[in-house]
Design a protein that fits this description.
Pfam families: TetR_C_11, TetR_N. One of its GO terms (molecular function) is transcription cis-regulatory region binding. Among the domains are: 47 residues, Homeodomain-like (Arc Repressor Mutant, subunit A), CATH 1.10.10.60; 109 residues, Tetracycline Repressor, domain 2, CATH 1.10.357.10. It has 10 helices and 2 strands, in the order αββααααααααα. The protein has a two-stranded antiparallel ribbon. A hairpin with a 3-residue loop joins β1 and β2.
Length: 269
């Protein structure tokens, strides 16, 4: 077949045939791109410091930022505990020394915690008994679970020299204590007040008293025994006894309380 000087055939293919040839030449490229997409999905990029990329969020939104590695965080928390058990004080600990003990870089720690205060709060959470899981629908039953959790934490502080030592030191550091209070203690109190409100809604408690005040009445006896009176006993039925006593009241049976309903008695002169 004769061709022109530019290499084109003197008898060009029909238009449809040219389109078919072009599509055949494009198909391998499209298949390669699809294969690359599938391969990337099946083999996510791994970061040696953070581990494999985490799964997507439950709501379908992609995770933002660098995925965390549970193993790396575990090593950092364990390093702090190891140093504290060796006699190191909170003042003496530095991010650099923690990183060296954990076998990570300082940047790895700062990606997870803004400073020592946040890190120490997570260490305390880690060595304390975990917070309980409540139903979120019950009233007095959830309140009983929360009070029992306070009792077990009190026992843990008495039996663990490390936990007791850390709490003693922490109270000398206002910033650390404030961080612990706002991120740990305050949410626990909110959960207690919410349980009291559910008990009110269910008709288990009076509805003519301030809910936060009632929450303090339930929390107070347990806090006194676990925090302010370390020598006081913490029997297994303490939560039930607190709830039962408050439900029955403290006035002698058969005697009408002197204070009007919903009002505290006047303080003695």
């Amino acid at each position: 077949m004769r061709r022109s000087g530019r290499g084109k055939s003197l008898h060009p293919r029909p238009v449809g045939e040219n389109r078919e040839v072009r599509l055949r030449s494009e198909r391998p490229t499209a298949r390669r791109e699809a294969d690359q997409v599938r391969q990337a999905a099946q083999n996510p990029v791994r970061d040696p410091a953070t581990g494999p990329a985490g799964p997507s969020c439950p709501d379908g939104e992609p995770r933002r930022g660098r995925p965390r590695s549970a193993a790396v965080e575990r090593a950092i928390l364990d390093a702090v505990v190891q140093l504290l058990e060796a006699g190191e004080t909170l003042d003496g600990l530095s991010i650099e020394r923690i990183a060296r003990t954990a076998g990570v870089g300082k940047a790895t720690i700062y990606r997870r915690w803004s400073g020592k205060e946040e890190l120490f709060v997570d260490v305390l959470r880690d060595i304390e008994p975990p917070d309980p899981t409540v139903s979120g629908t019950a009233g007095l039953d959830d309140l009983r679970v929360l009070l029992e959790s306070m009792r077990t934490r009190g026992l843990a502080q008495r039996s663990s020299a490390l936990l007791h030592n850390v709490f003693v030191q922490m109270k000398k550091h206002p910033r650390l204590w404030t961080e612990y209070h706002s991120t740990v203690i305050a949410p626990r109190r909110v959960a207690t007040v919410a349980a009291v409100q559910r008990a009110v809604d269910a008709g288990e408690l009076r509805d003519d008293l301030d809910v936060e005040f009632m929450g303090d009445l339930f929390l107070g006896p347990m806090l006194v025994r676990t925090v302010h009176r370390p020598e006081a006993s913490l029997p297994e039925d303490l939560a039930d006894r607190i709830i039962g006593t408050l439900l029955q009241g403290l006035a002698p049976r058969g005697r009408k309380p002197q204070a009007t309903a919903g009002e505290p008695a006047a303080a003695p002169a």
